[in-house]
Amino acid sequence: QVQLVESGGGLVQPGGSLRLSCAASVSQFRMYFMGWYRQAPGKQRELVASISHLSGTTYADAVKGRFTISRDNTKNTVVLQMNSLKPEDTAVYYCNKAPRPWDYWGQGTQVTVSS
After folding, report:
1. Radius of gyration of the CA atoms of the chain, in A
2. pLDDT tens string 41-66
3. Residue 31, phi then psi, degrees to nearest 5
4. Mean pLDDT, the chain, as a whole number?
5. Structural contact between residues 59 and 112, judged by C-beta atoms closer than 8 angstroms
6. Comparing C-alpha atoms, which of 104, 108, 97 is closest to residue 40?
């Protein structure tokens, strides 16, 4: 049984930063590749960053150099540090297994980048 709880979103001005956190209640968390996804209004959900069980990372081109994903296997958490935010980063952000997510999705956390 999987439970995912995202937090840390908010309203930020362009160029600002936010730190998103995901608490995962799942057995053997440390064995899974995890990712942060986002869904903007009218668009499909997309994977923006992923981290392997050994903390290797990959990023979508749109966020490379600005976002950093990390994990703490002792706390079953995944963090997304987002810097130099742009209006096009506005979306609901979710964490889940990557690249093939579980069917269960948390409630997500809203990120709005606007002046």
Report:
1. 13
2. 999 999 999 999 999 999 999 999 99
3. -90, -10
4. 97
5. no
6. 108
Alpha-carbon span 79 to 34, nearest angstrom = 10
> Is the pLDDT confidence value at 30 over 90?
yes
Structure tokens at 86: 């742009």
Structure tokens belonging to residue 22:
């995901």
Buried b (16+ CB within 10 A) or exposed e, 61-99: eebeeebbbebeeeebbbbbebeebeeebbbbbbbbbbe
Are 43 and 31 in contact by the 8 Å Cβ rule? The answer is no
What band does 1 get if pLDDT is binned at 50, 70 and 90? confident
Strand partners, 95: 36
